[in-house]
Amino acid sequence: MPSQTDALQQELAGLRQELRLYQNYDLLTRLYNKQTFYQKSAELLREQPNTPFDIVCVDVERFKLINDQYGAETGDKVLCAIAAGLKQAFSPMNAILGRMAGDVFLLCVPGGREQEVEQLILRVFADCPLNRPVLPAIGFCHVTDRTLPINLLCDWAALAMRTAKGSYLKHSAVFNSSQRSLLLEEQTLMDKADAALKNREFQVYFQPKCNMRTGRIVGAEALVRWISPEKGLIPPCNFIPLFERNGFIKKLDLYVWEETIAWLRRRMDAGVRPVPVSVNISRIDIYGMDVCNVLTQLLNHYKVDLSLLELEITESAYVNQPEEIIRTIERLMGHGFTVLMDDFGSGYSSLNMLNNISVDILKIDMRFLARDDRKSRDILESVLHMSKWLNLPVVAEGVETKTQMDFLLAVGCMYAQGYYFYRPMPQVQFEALLADPEKVDLADNGRQLFDQAMLLDFHDLFHKDLMSDRLLSNLLGAIALYSFDGEGLYLLRGTEAYYKLMDSFKRPQAQWEQNLLPFFYEEDHPQILEGLRRAKTAVDDNVVELYVRKHHRNVFLWLQIRLFHLAETGGRDVYYAALADCTEHMTTLERLRVSEEQFCLAMETTSLVLFELDIKKREARYSKYTQRSFDLDAQVVKAPEGFIQQGTVCPESEEDFRAMYEAIFCGAEKASCIIHARLSGGAAVWNRVSLTTVKNNRGQAVKAVGIVETISRETEPSPEICQALRRQAQSRQSSAAAALPRGPANLI
Ligand code: C2E
Ligand code: CA
Ligand code: CA
What we know:
Distance between the termini: 60 Å
Helix content: 40-55%
Strand content: 15-25%
Structural class: alpha+beta
Bound molecules: ligand C2E, calcium ion
Strand order of the largest sheet: 6-7-9-10-11-12-13-14
Number of strands: 25
């Protein structure tokens, strides 16, 4: 029988083993932790001094988004699956594997086999149990000098990995001598930064923002330049990311903000009214200081009105740690600052993000869409369309060509900043521009939404006076007198402009007995006949307006025809008709409609499902993709009952789902809920459905944009989902008890 000491010793040995596990391994993935990886790799390098080795750093691209969209539990599963896959793939190679931190893995593998290693890693990632692609970014560092510590080699591999990030074509990069000199260069810059700031080597340049219609300057962006006595002009991309990493950006930005505000003060002292200037705010600034207080103090100190200073916060800042950023932005906006979302569209969660974040203006960078292919244009159009829905003004950045400008104007974007207009310039040069009243428009606040014509949708065209007025102004001139005998339409007289417009119609003389109807599209004939009838019976001298197509060479023209019944003589009716070519408008509207469809398409490329809710009609409209996903039998349903009747919502979620809609119908700006939803094919998933209302020009909530995100595919709800569901139910019950408008607005 084992003695008591034996038992104790056994227990102790077990504990020791467990301790070793804690000390040496990463508990989630069961790979070595960072320290053990360093140690084991160093041992391997020592044991095999003549074998070449590589240190490999592997990162999961956009892992944060996976965590956000599917929950941390799924994120962990992905990491474990990758770890297990790597272990299996690399054990025949005698490799050492570890997890550095978060979503970064480390490998020490025999050298000279990069392609094979990359293929193996890609295969592991491809097998990841997630319904969207998970991609690696891989960095190699060849071990050439064995006296260097492993952690340094890992840093270098990580650096190479960073250069491979965000690219869909290239997944890996090798640390090389140029990156090594880059590191050294960065180190020198870091060492010199403090002194340079004191020596005023940093200068603020301004780049004008223009109204593309008028070509006038309506604002500017302050952009920093480092003018070094030794190196000359150093562009910000060489030092901003570096300063963001070591925190120096806070000092630099503070300097840029103060320089900008002081410059505004000097302009006013010189009797020149300046245009508003935007400064950049890094997310590091937001974590490291009270931006709102700092800016308010600076503005007070220099007695500059806050309407002259605008703030650009880059979109990626919102993606990483949104809570703090969102809170800061809300505070800044609450204080009256204008906040621009910079580089909008560069991230992938943009559209989803707008649901939760308020900003004043979107800045879209054309360079993110540099490939001039259709898809980029479609996405740009979709983003502009979305901003139209949300009533957000847009500034396009990086506009370099007239073609880009024309395209932007055609899709309704008014403002731009880019080399096509002006490059960033030193202060004196900008001051000279400002002094020229021809070049500046102080009355333009840079916030006009869109060209009004672009704002109208098909439906509006027939009901708003605006469009017909525009058309009417074009149309003075193209006027005709027609007679109609119940079957044929004949020209009695026309003005010169009329003949010009209708160039395929001959002058009447000989043919004035020629029926004109066949010149119009056959499909439009019933509309014309009905129009003639309506004009005859119209009360109060009302004019009837028609939009019809006329054959024109091999294409067709859209014509707006306004008809007025003049008299009835000898069994014929005589009409006065004013005609205008509205082909361009109709095609634009058609394009807008198509872009709306493309917007849905663009959404379908993410795992988000989007729909549009007409609040008044209580109808939800969605893409074919959504229809297929949920096996709905039409592309429009009455909401919420239409969804429920078709079995989209599992019974346990019906109440929450109804309550969310009720909240919107009762006037809530946003509402969301978690539901158990049934997909086509019968599987049920946990979805978060969010609705955000969209206001029209008069501030009335007319539509809501809905986003559906899958948060779990498990049958059983996770503890977090259970908790959210409980909160949802409680809030529903308490609002019902208080007989308030029911609804879990912003529950989650
Ligand atoms: P950003 O905020 O997106 O600034 C716009 C950048 O686009 C500027 O580059 C500008 O010169 C460039 N740009 C404008 N129009 C065109 C164009 O038509 N074509 C091309 N190719 N480029 C155009 P810059 O000045 O090199 O600044 C780069 C980035 O550095 C900025 O991007 C911003 O993120 C950062 N940055 C610059 N100044 C500051 C600053 O004072 N503080 C902070 N935190 N970041 C700054
Ligand atoms: Ca900017
Ligand atoms: Ca930008």
